[in-house]
Every structure is written in C-alpha cells, then in structure tokens.
Amino acid sequence: MRMVDIITKKRDGQELTDEEISFFIKGYVAGEIPDYQASALLMAIVFKGMTNREIVTLTDRMEHSGETMDLSAIEGIKVDKHSTGGVGDKTTLAVGPMVAACGAKVAKMSGRGLGHTGGTLDKLESIPGMNVFETEEEFIAQMNKIGIAVVGQTGTLVPADKKLYALRDVTGTVESLPLIASSIMSKKLASGTNCIELDVKFGNGAFMKNVHDARELAKTMVAIGNSLGRDTRAILTDMAQPLGYAVGNSLEVKEAIDTLHGHGPEDFTELCLHSGAVMLHQAKIAKTFEEGEAMIKEVVANGKAFEKFRELVIAQGGDVSYIDHPEKFEVSKNVIEIHAKNSGFVKEIVALEIGESAMRLGAGRETFDDVIDMSAGIVLAKKIGDKVAKGDLLCTVYTNKEKEEYEPVIADIEKAFKVVNVFVEKPKVIEEYIH
Fold first, then answer.
1. 72 and 45 Cβ atoms separated by less than 8 Å
2. All domains of the chain, ordered by start, with CATH?
3. Which of these is catalytic: 65, 183, 250, 332?
4. Which of 78, 90, 187, 382 is catalytic?
C-alpha cells in the first residue's frame, strides 16, 4: 500500500477503505508518512469530503492512535459534555455540579482557551490553588468519591489528532466537516465515558457561523458516537450574542456560582437546565427529559448543586473560600463603564467582537504561550431584546492594561452594540435537539 495511491484515490472522489485509513493514521503517527503527503490527503478530504463510514473509521483509528482512558473502575454510567466553544460559555462550571448533585457521574476532560473562546481549564484556574491535572488513578478515585472531576487531557490521548490539528492549522484545512467531527469525537471517545452530550454552537461568535453547518456537524458527530457504541446526543445553541452576561475567567466563575444559587442569567440558566436534563436522561437517572429538568431545578433550589461545586473545588486543591465569598476574586485596576448613546431596543451584540475584545483586554490568549489575566473581561448589563434609555449601562469593562492599550478596545466594544428604535424580540437560546 502506498500513500500516493491513497491521496490520488481521494483526490478523484473515491471512498477509502478501512485499511487505507488505518495505514494513513498509523503511518503518520509513527513518522513514516511525511507532512507533505498528509497535507495533500487533508486537502483532498476538504474538497471531496468523506462518507459516514469513512468518518467513523477515521475517528476510530484516531481514538486508538494512543492510550485510551479505562473508566470501568468508576461505578455507574459516566457522562461527558462538549461545547464547540463560544463567548461566555461557562456551562461546564454550572451544569457539571448540577448533574453530579442528581447522582450522575460527570467525567469531564476539558481544554484551554485560544482566541476569543475561553477554556474551562483557564476558568477553573482562576480559583487559587485549583489543580486541573490529575493522574488516571487520582481521577478515578475522585469520581468514585464525589461523582465529578474536571481535568485536562493527558498527553498520551489521541496523538493522531494533535499531529493532524497542528498540520491543518497551517495548511488551510481546518474547515472540513469530516476533519472537525473526527477531531472532536476522537478525543471525547478516548476519554472513556459511556455517554456524550454535545453543545454545537452557531452564529458570529461560534466556529460554525450558520445553523445549517452546525446541524450537519452535530448530526455527523452524533452518528459517529452512536456507531462506536456511545450514547451521543447534541443540542444546537445560538451564539449570536455572548452566553450569559460575563465574559472573562474569574468573572465567569462568579456567574456560574450565581447560577448554582439560582440567580443566574435567563439564557444561561435555560441552557444549563436543558443540557443537564439531557445528561440525566443519558445516565438513566431521569426517565424523561422533563423529569431531568425538574431534578436539576430541585438541586439548585436545595443548595446541593452549589455544594457539589464546593466539593469539586476542594477535591482539586482549590481555595473554597473564593467559592463561598466570590468578592475575594481580584478586581482589575481599571473598571470602565460603557453607556448607551441613544434610547431604543438592543438589536445586536456582536459576540465575536465582545470575545476578541475580552481577549485583547487580557482575558484570552492569541498563542498558547500567552499569559491570561484572570480578572480581565467584560460584563454585559443588557442583552438582545432589552429596552434601553440613553445613558443606560450597556456593559462594564475590566482590565489591567494601560489606557493607551485599552482605549481602542473600548471603541470596538461600543460598536458591538446596536440599538434601534423598534421593538426587538429576545432570541431563543436552544435551536434544536438531535439524538
């Protein structure tokens, strides 16, 4: 078998066999297939696509290109969730403890943020002392003790994805549905949980810009997971505006704490309820979606969801006094308010602009080497559909940057808000449930 024959076969739009896909993944991970040939195949896939069978095989071979997590020592059905990333998406911090408080086992492997989408690990690390890296033994012990762990992936999981993603990033082959789906799902499957819930976001602040592309990605990933023996479901959610009010690491932790106390933003609370209900149904703890939603509401109301978050923080070495007293989180030295220049209704809050602005204020990283300012970010005061009067607060900006650095960012944030003099309906958060 020769790599050049596989490349030309896909270039001509033909379907690759399981053996050919295996040959490619094994050879590339072993260093026997050079980058230039791997790049050529990736580009052929971008132009010619893959069948569902090819995508399932590619994902399976990527999943097994390194070690996989064996979670059989954890009692019960293990559930995991994954978001394709969005501005202000702190869902794991709230929904994980909610679901675990209902008795499900939430085994979550998360990543760091890059660009305008923050990473769950970075948000957790804004809590002093929080350790997001554990051995497999520590992870399993914590799961059996408190039913939830949120950690970073080990370096031995899915080496094929690490190599391929780095190559895709520099060869213009990131935007390909088969390659995106296999990248996400290979990591989720290698993490070893029984069930996977996917939050696939669409809109200007998301990776998938329109609902059609997001739906296709969601359906593909659900098909991959179910074909490979995992209960996989997806929800499509709107990312035309930031999720909740807070964008930035410690700011989002504080909002997650508010939500666990039952005082969270309406849109974020709705997503947590829906997402949590799906996970409880997958874990067979709730017989119906409605029962799952009622269970989530109950553990928020009786304080068990917040207590579970405390347990998570304590188990991973975090200073729980910051969870009990969120006012302890450091506040940036510069706090700037942005006010409405005219009255009307908020028609648009460009999520991408808010996310990128937060990053420029210090809340995100443009490269993996950048150091994040945990206190930096933006807290909205208004959302799409809200009525505003001239002079009303639109948002508050937090940064430790100097004035000459943050002033251009303030101007861009102002432009992200569009206020019109006609009534605007509030958008729905959840577009569709795919299972």
1. no
2. 3-49 (1.20.970.10), 78-324 (3.40.1030.10), 331-420 (3.90.1170.30)
3. 183
4. 187
